Amino acid sequence: MADEKEGERIRDWLTSEGLEIKPREDPRADFHYMVRYPPTKHGHVFNVLSPKDRNLIVVSSVTQVDLGQQDEMKKHSKDDSEAWREWLHETRLGLTRAHVDWVLHVGHGSENPGPLQAFNLSMPIWNDGITQNELMQTLRRLWLSKLSIIHEIKFSYGPGIGRPGPVDDWAKSGGPPSEGEKPPSSASKVETDETGGFGTGFDPSEWV
């Protein structure tokens, strides 16, 4: 549970770091902000929200894997299913060691699992521990965890083709988390499409 002042305080903290913010209507939350982090043209969208009837905020971000990279994963799975399963296993272990909450959306293949179609990383901060430092460190930890997966996918499965691939779980649920969202027209523009891939346009020098 968060009051209006707490939502304003968190928004002020994010704004003071030069981050672009867009409020999002969410009946399940006392407040919900969509934030671009890091503050570069290639930053990703993060959600910062306070669920109703909970004494915490949640910071999260979801990324869809490039279609070309998904195709390479399918080939890997077909050519060496054991190595592919090991890659998925090591990815899960790496995220667990990073101390973040994670969901991997893996294709529902008839034989081997895969490809990795999207991943969602999140962390909670309980109300008695919310400070500007904790909030920014949480964004940073989630971002670096995302960056680690992005580097690994590009190293193992190439640059992609610049087009996000399908996500079986979203097809079953009726669409991605941000379906129906449109970017604001104000100067503080935050792209609300959380499904953007990281294929050919990926530039690590701008993201750290």
Protein described:
The chain is an alpha+beta fold. The chain has a single domain (4-169), classed as Yope Regulator, Chain: A (2-Layer Sandwich). It is built from 5 helices and 6 strands, in the order H-E-E-E-E-H-H-E-E-H-H. It has helices at residues 4-16, 67-79, 81-97, 132-157, 168-173, and strands at 21-23, 29-37, 44-51, 56-64, 101-106, 116-126. Strands 1-2-3-4-6-5 form a 6-stranded antiparallel sheet. Helix 2 crosses helix 3 (81-97). The longest helix has 26 residues, at 132-157. Residues 178-208 have low confidence and may be disordered.
Write a brief structural summary.
With 208 residues, the chain is α+β, with helices and mostly antiparallel strands.
Structural key phrases:
alpha+beta, Yope Regulator, Chain: A, 6-stranded antiparallel sheet
Shape verdict? elongated
Please indicate the count of domains. Answer: 1
User: Treating each run of at least 4 consecutive H or I residues as one helix, how many helices?
Assistant: 5
Strand order of the largest sheet: 1-2-3-4-6-5
Helix content: 25-40%
Question: Structural class of the helices, strands and pairings?
Answer: alpha+beta
Q: Which blocks of ≥5 consecutive residues have pLDDT under 50? A: 178-208
Mean pLDDT: 84
* Fold-level CATH name: Yope Regulator, Chain: A
The major β-sheet equals:
6 strands, antiparallel
Question: Any chance you could write out the topology, listing elements then pairs?
Answer:
Elements: H1 4-16, E1 21-23, E2 29-37, E3 44-51, E4 56-64, H2 67-79, H3 81-97, E5 101-106, E6 116-126, H4 132-157, H5 168-173
Antiparallel strand pairs: 1-2, 2-3, 3-4, 4-6, 5-6
Helix pairs in contact: 2-3
